[in-house]
Write a sequence for this structure.
């Protein structure tokens, strides 16, 4: 009887899943719904079972429901319209667990651990979603707190700890879980992102790095692009660096991005510093240049002098990098 | 230059996309998770077997009305906004069955703004029962993620029940195939139809949120929750999908809660720092107009949300909400 109880629902699930996968979806412009996934190599299991995070419950809290896990095909069930942000960035698996305070069931929080398959992918989704109103967490290079939540990138993992409120009980619990994860995920891959060191520290605004794996600034060709904000005499300047395979590819990318800006309404500004190209883009200044295999530049600057100063700092740093 | 590079973007769209670039960017853990929606989209369903979604709109004079109320308490603002439209009695006849469709998409605590404010849902339930003299009010949604958890953790299940509503969770028999006449995407697709089968009126009530894929989630996007099947596929062409939802579901009334707006990291959010108080609630009979005004609270324009114009061009409503001469008020 027990076997029947288990087998029948499983068969139903398999039939449903297969039938849905084979549905006609050509009207969405998709030839096949199957995408190649990165292979999971982490310390977490490769099967479909949720990881047991119940035992991580901080003092005063208990697991609230069972742990869950989601893969690329099912992630939308958990986060709906935000799923593409992850699935387009190397997502492998999400593990979740909710906890509830044993004395006050209004105090809950959820652990969401995304396996993003590489440190760069994890840093990308971490940095893109970073909240402006936040504060860094001591001893964790890529972590920040908001009033009710804590977020961290840890090697190949991106972790969200989301509290139902800003209760000190919850915030302490989030700290406990974060610390525990750091201790237990030591083999999660590199915790440093070497490309960040390409940005000169002078005038750099801390914790403003963003990694765009694809489509930086609306241009599909601008891949693996890091950006950072600088503050110079009160002017905020956004700088970017994109590492390409070699100098020839970088030069082609420079030309394509330059043309893309012009095609979309930008106007060329005479530049005396080739190969840098200056473009007036609806009142904002775009600068794009190349140094060996790096495409770099300034995005949407208001002040030309400040933009040129930051551009020069970055160019000098990249020249050193190439020596 | 590749063909892909040549895609022309309007300035505003380009800047918005550029600013948000990157943002534009288990087998079920329980059997129940999938069993409530077991019907896959089929390419062979007989048209005669498909359901037709009733038009729940009421004749409005002039056609399309909206009200905009400022106030810190969405429940109070709701009362005022409906009054400005002529009162709930204009929309509900005594003895009718009313379906309220909140956004219960996530098992997210109410303070995070990812789901409809439970106190607002409760207020609307009471309004329909007490002043509208509805025979029954059903509060329902079709969250993909465990519905029980979503209704529990969002607080909507408890609040709606306490106010006198029947809270209905999805189950297999509630899903039926439908096709939108002349629709490009919603063809032969299962929808969450059961609660609508015996309903007289349909009211959508949604939080105002940023949305990673569509730019904004408001009253039109709210009806995405009535799609069945593996509906994530609709995110591939989200603008057409939302416009077609507005053509398929013609609600009696929609209410958009912009008291607290999720400005970033939607539709899930997670941090209270994603939220901003706008102290504004909009009600109306024209979802396109309501959402067009709602866009302004997200610092967006109609041109930033293509689905608004697609729906307007299809005759669903007006993006120029000022042409409807909104009624303004304050509450609380």
């Amino acid at each position: 009887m027990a076997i029947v109880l288990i087998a029948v629902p499983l068969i139903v699930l398999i039939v449903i899943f297969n039938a849905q996968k084979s549905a006609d979806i050509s009207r969405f412009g998709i030839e096949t719904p199957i995408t190649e996934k990165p292979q999971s190599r982490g310390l977490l299991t490769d099967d479909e079972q949720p990881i047991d995070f119940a035992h991580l419950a901080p003092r005063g809290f208990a697991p609230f429901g069972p742990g869950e896990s989601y893969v690329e095909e099912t992630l939308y069930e958990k986060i709906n319209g935000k799923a593409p942000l992850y699935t387009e960035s190397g997502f492998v698996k999400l593990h979740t667990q909710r906890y509830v305070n044993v004395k006050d069931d209004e105090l809950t929080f959820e652990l969401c651990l995304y396996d993003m398959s590489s440190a760069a992918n994890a840093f990308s989704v971490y940095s893109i979603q970073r909240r402006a109103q936040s504060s860094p967490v001591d001893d964790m290079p890529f972590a920040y707190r908001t009033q009710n939540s804590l977020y961290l990138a840890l090697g190949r993992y991106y972790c969200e700890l989301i509290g139902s409120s800003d209760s000190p009980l919850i915030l302490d619990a989030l700290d406990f879980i974060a610390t525990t994860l750091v201790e237990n995920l030591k083999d999660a891959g590199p915790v440093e992102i070497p490309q960040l060191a390409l940005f000169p520290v002078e005038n750099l605004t801390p914790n403003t790095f963003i990694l765009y794996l694809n489509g930086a600034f609306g241009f599909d060709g601008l891949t693996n692009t890091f950006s950072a904000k600088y503050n110079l005499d009160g002017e905020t300047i956004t700088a970017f660096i994109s590492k390409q395979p070699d100098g020839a590819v970088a030069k082609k990318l420079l030309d394509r991005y330059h043309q893309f800006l012009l095609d979309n309404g930008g106007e060329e500004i005479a530049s005396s510093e080739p190969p840098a190209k200056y473009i007036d883009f609806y009142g904002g200044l775009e600068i794009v240049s190349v140094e060996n295999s790096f495409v770099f530049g300034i995005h949407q600057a208001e002040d030309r002098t400040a933009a040129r100063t930051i551009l020069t700092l970055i160019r000098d740093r990249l020249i050193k990098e190439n020596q | 230059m590749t063909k892909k590079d040549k895609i022309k973007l309007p300035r505003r769209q380009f800047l918005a996309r550029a600013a948000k670039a990157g943002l534009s960017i288990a087998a079920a853990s329980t059997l129940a998770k999938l069993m409530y929606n077991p019907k896959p989209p089929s390419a062979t369903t007989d048209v005669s077997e498909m359901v037709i979604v009733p038009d729940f709109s009421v004749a409005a004079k002039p056609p399309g009305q909206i009200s905009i109320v400022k106030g810190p308490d969405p429940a109070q603002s709701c009362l005022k906004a409906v009054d400005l439209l002529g009162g709930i009695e204009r929309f509900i006849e005594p003895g009718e069955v009313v379906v309220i469709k909140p956004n219960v998409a996530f098992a997210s605590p109410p303070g995070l703004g990812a789901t409809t404010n439970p106190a607002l849902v409760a207020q609307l339930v009471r309004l329909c029962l007490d002043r509208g003299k509805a025979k029954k009010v059903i509060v329902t949604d079709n969250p993909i993620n465990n519905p029980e958890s979503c209704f529990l953790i969002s607080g909507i299940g408890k609040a709606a029940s306490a106010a006198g509503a029947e809270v209905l969770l999805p189950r297999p028999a509630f899903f039926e195939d439908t096709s939108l006449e002349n629709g490009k995407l919603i063809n032969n697709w299962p929808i969450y139809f059961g609660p609508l089968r015996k309903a007289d009126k349909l009211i959508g009530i949604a939080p105002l949120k940023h949305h990673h894929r569509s730019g904004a989630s408001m009253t039109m996007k709210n009806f995405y929750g009535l799609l069945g099947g593996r509906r994530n596929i609709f995110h591939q062409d989200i603008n057409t999908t939302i416009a077609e939802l507005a053509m398929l579901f013609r609600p009696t009334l929609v209410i958009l809660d912009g008291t607290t707006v999720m400005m970033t990291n939607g539709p899930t959010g997670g941090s209270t720092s994603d939220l901003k108080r706008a102290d504004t609630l909009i009600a109306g009979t024209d979802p396109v107009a309501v959402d067009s005004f709602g866009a302004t609270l997200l610092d967006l324009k109609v041109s930033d949300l293509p689905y608004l114009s697609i729906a307007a061009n299809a005759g669903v409503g007006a993006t120029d909400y000022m042409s409807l001469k909104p009624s303004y008020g304050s509450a609380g």
